Amino acid sequence: PQPAARRGTRFHAWVEARFEELTLPMLEPEELPGSEAEISDERDLESLKEAFEQTEYAHRTPYRVEAPFQLALAGRVVRGRIDAVYKVGDGDGATYEIVDWKTNRARTADPLQLAVYRIAWAEQQGVPPESVTAAFLYVRSGEIVRPDGLPDRAALERLLSEEPPGEEPHSEDVGAGR
């Protein structure tokens, strides 16, 4: 993995450890590809941790961390892990906020990633998509971006169906661009 990907992976592992009791089992750090490679700049990882501690999410307890999902969309199976889910309320009035941590320096995240996460979580929990919001947290700056008008399931399927004809259905992994 590239240094930025390794750093992002280590940051995600740190957040996971911070909320360890909420996390479903994942790979151990020594099982990650490229984990034996040294990260050249430990200070960068430390600055990410310090920056995270300044955000509102450092002071909230997530409902789930690194929540796995699998979603069938337009003849494709999309698999991934949602960085964090925050729950507000209980019962039928409960709402959820999906948060994806972005550790890269550029603000380049694609809102379609959040749209997929939102639909996957809503369907997995059996709640209406309207009760699930989604945000990117750009950890370095502390900026929170909550895109408006995330596409619903039908719109996502239309987007995926616009692939060139003759494509075979396949699996997609989302969220790898930390």
Q: What would a concise description of this structure say?
A:
With 178 residues, this protein is of the alpha/beta class. The protein is built from four helices and six strands.
Descriptive report:
By secondary structure, the chain is α/β, with parallel strands linked by helices. It has one domain (3-174). Helix content is 29%, strand content 25%. The chain is built from four helices and six strands; from the N terminus they run H-H-E-E-E-H-E-E-H-E. It has helices at residues 3-18, 42-53, 111-125, 153-161, and strands at 64-73, 76-88, 95-102, 132-138, 143-145, 171-174. Strands 1, 2, 3, 4, 5 and 6 form a six-stranded mixed beta sheet that branches. A hairpin with a 4-residue loop joins strand 4 (132-138) and strand 5 (143-145). The chain is globular, with a radius of gyration of 17 Å. The model is unreliable at 35-40 (pLDDT under 50).
